[in-house]
Design a protein that fits this description.
The chain is of the alpha+beta class. It has 19 helices and 22 strands. It has three domains: 172 residues, Galactose-binding domain-like (Jelly Rolls); 203 residues; 162 residues, Alpha-Beta Plaits, CATH 3.30.70. Helix content is 49%, strand content 21%. Strands 1, 2, 3, 4, 6, 7, 8, 9, 10, 11 and 13 form an eleven-stranded mixed β-sheet that branches. It is elongated.
Length: 703
């Protein structure tokens, strides 16, 4: 474990070195002059313009004008630094000019400056030519505006000596000045540095966002995993930290972003991410993280955060130091809690401890860097990256342990569930969000949109009277043994058997139900061949299909429960199946089912009627799917389909004479068409009796 922590530290050092550029050299300016023309100058290196710059307080010098005009107001200051910390006699709000003379080794090269954000606006000249600016400098808060961006400024010197003049004004933050050093080097090296920094920042952002989404996914599927939610929020807040510091990528994406908003987003990981991080540890080690200290730290950070959000940045920035103190105290408290968890040998405590120590160290580095106590760079994202890797490893370990436990438990429950699933379908349990039949409770319910299929043997009562009870059971079981696999093959499941009637549910697609219906008749032909050979009469069935919302649930009482489906959809599907006897059709479907078919163009369908069945106030259009008929019948029905539907339309318009004429022509071609025969009887009836009052053509069935 110690070796693993050592490797992690080395990894952070390497990445942070890359971020700050391992080929960077420190320039040492002396009394406003930086000499880079010495033999020690390294070709291709980047030099930081650190050291003593000329400093002119409350003065905006004009580039190229004799410095002697301003010497009365000149002093030297150390860069990087802010004028109200390094030069304590000056207030934070004001303006100044910084000047540095740089001696270059070769003026024939194209150079560039890497300019980090300054506090809070600047304009920068080289040899009297402005090459970069951020915001608008001014002599008061009214005529200045802040901006926070990292920039690259290429230039080609005219001689081996250049004069850099930087005017800075600050009226919006608690510090003012050049708090990070400018880098100088060959243009291609500066661009390479920027590309590397951007690549590392984007890599870290991508890693944090992916991990956040991963943990959010875990939380969505397991809401009890609060640790995943808190960790995801923490990753997202520090993604914001990455894009608002360093290269300030957010200002590149949104160039006109409000400066105050940008600063507050940069501070959000402190006042929001810190409390979230503490809550995350509370969920990991609930017995080791106390409530009083935890709540005190969280409420204090959130209270300061609320003021930071509400107040202007010029005032809110003064709350940053106490907020940083609270964050450090919080991380110290977490360290103590982790040591306690280590002593008690809590699962995962070792991984968390070493990963957190690395994270803690980088957080302290960032705070000290922000307070100007040290001159390094922002390293917290790397510490967080190591912490994420450790947390992910721990999560993977916990998941592996869970899988082992699940395998043991599933082995014990497999036989029971397999036996019980024959009584209550597994699909039914799935809709109720239950893993096992042992989990179901009285009153469990679920609303689902699906297709219902009813299949019933016609005249089975007459048939069963000719068989003994044993023969009845044997006959039915042999029949159901043929039908059940067809339903399951097409993504359906049997909800219940009602004597010889089957009720099946198809949750995925109405097309599955229709395909099942057609295949049932193929199986019936095979079944009849076998049953006739055993002395049983052949059978025929009818299938009714409807689609809609149904309520699946558990009914009964404490000592006796069963699964059931309650819905008007079920009632209508059952009644549509019974209408197959009247219309002498194999398969009837409702118009609602027809609209849900994804293979409608490949089916043989014709409109039959508009009906209103018992218990329903709404009317339903019904259609015959005749793909189960023999080839000759399909051909005849296809040929007469348009004429039949036109005749039915005439019937609905109460034009019974014309409808009858057309129907009789169809009957000549297909004398056994039950639908045609039924409409002929209806037309003759209304021709004889007259058109009823309030005629709509809708067929009403009370049975």
């Amino acid at each position: 474990m110690i070796a693993s922590a050592r490797r992690s530290i080395i990894f952070i050092v390497i990445l942070s070195s890359l971020l700050s550029c391992t080929w960077k050299e420190k320039g040492e300016a002396d009394k406003g002059i930086l000499n880079l023309s010495t033999p020690d100058f390294v070709s291709g290196a980047l030099y930081s313009l650190e050291g003593e710059w000329e400093f002119y307080w409350m003065t905006l010098t004009e580039p190229g004008k004799s410095v002697s005009d301003y010497t009365h107001n000149m002093r030297y200051c150390d860069i990087p630094g802010t004028w109200n910390s390094d030069i304590s006699i000056y207030p934070p709000h004001g303006y100044a000019t910084l000047r540095l003379t740089v001696l270059l080794p070769d003026h024939d090269q194209v150079y560039a400056l890497y300019i980090p954000p300054m506090l809070t606006a600047y304009s920068l000249w080289i040899d009297g030519k402005i090459i970069s600016f951020n915001g608008k400098i001014g002599t008061s808060g009214r005529d200045s505006s802040p901006q926070y961006m990292t920039k690259i400024a290429p230039f080609k010197p005219e001689s081996d000596k250049i004069e850099i003049v930087c005017q800075i004004s600050n009226y919006h933050y608690r510090k003012g000045g050049m708090w990070s050093p400018i880098l100088i080097g060959h243009a291609n090296e500066i661009n390479r540095l920027r590309d590397l920094n951007v690549a590392i920042a984007l890599f870290l952002c991508g890693a944090f966002i992916i991990m956040a989404l991963y943990h959010i996914g875990i939380y969505i599927f397991r809401p009890q995993e609060l640790s995943s939610l808190f960790f995801a929020l923490f990753c997202l807040t520090f993604t914001i930290r990455i894009i608002t510091t360093g290269e300030v990528l957010l200002s590149e994406f949104i160039t006109d972003i409000n400066w105050g908003l940008l600063i507050k987003l940069e501070l959000m990981p402190l006042f929001f991410g810190g409390p979230v991080f503490l809550q995350f540890f509370k969920t990991l080690f609930p017995k080791d993280v106390g409530n009083i200290i935890r709540k005190t730290i969280i409420y204090s950070a959130l209270a300061i955060g609320a003021f930071i959000i509400i107040l202007p940045v010029s005032y809110a920035s003064y709350l940053v130091p106490p907020l940083e103190v609270i964050i450090v105290l919080g991380m110290l408290y977490i360290t103590i809690c982790l040591i306690k968890a280590l002593r008690l040998n809590r699962p995962g405590a070792k991984y968390m401890f070493f990963a957190f120590i690395i994270f803690f160290a980088t957080a302290v580095n960032d705070i000290l860097f922000a307070l100007e106590f040290i001159q390094t760079s922002y390293m917290l994202p790397f510490g967080l990256f190591i912490f994420i890797l450790a947390e992910s490893f721990l999560l993977a370990k916990n998941i592996a342990r869970s899988y082992t436990n699940v395998e043991l438990l599933s082995g014990e429950l497999h036989k029971t569930n397999r036996a019980m699933s024959r009584f209550v379908p597994n699909e039914f349990l799935a809709f109720l969000n239950k893993k096992s039949i042992m989990d179901i409770r009285l009153g469990d319910q679920h609303l689902q949109f699906m297709t219902i299929l009813f299949c019933d043997i016609r005249s089975f009562t007459t048939l069963s009277e000719k068989m003994s009870p044993q023969q009845n059971f044997n006959f039915l079981n042999s029949y159901l043994k043929k039908i059940g696999p067809v339903i399951r093959k097409n993504n359906g499941f049997i909800d219940k058997y009602i004597g010889d009637e089957i009720m099946a549910l198809f949750p995925n697609s109405a097309s599955d139900a229709v395909k099942t219906a057609v295949e049932i008749f193929t199986e019936i032909k095979s079944f009849n061949i076998t049953s006739v050979s055993k002395g049983y009469p052949p059978i025929n069935v009818g299938v009714g299909i409807h689609t809609g919302n149904i309520m699946l649930g558990i009914i009964g009482e404490d000592q006796r429960i069963e699964s059931t489906v309650i819905s008007d959809t079920v009632n209508l599907a059952s009644r549509i199946e019974k209408l197959t006897r009247l219309y002498k059709t194999d398969i009837l479907v409702t118009g609602k089912t027809l609209t849900k078919l994804d293979n409608l163009g490949r089916l043989h369908v014709r409109m039959i009627d508009i009906v209103q069945v018992r218990g329903k106030t709404e009317e339903s259009a019904i259609f015959e799917i005749y793909d189960s008929n023999d080839y000759d019948t399909i051909a005849i029905k296809d040929k007469t389909k348009e004429e039949l539907e036109y005749a039915i339309n005439l019937y609905f318009k109460a034009d019974f004479i014309k409808s009858l004429e057309l129907l009789e022509k169809i009957l000549i071609q297909n004398p056994h068409d039950g639908v045609v025969n039924l409409y002929i009887k209806r037309c003759k009836k209304y021709i004889e009796l007259g058109t009823p009052a309030n005629w709509t053509g809708v067929s009403r069935f009370e049975g």
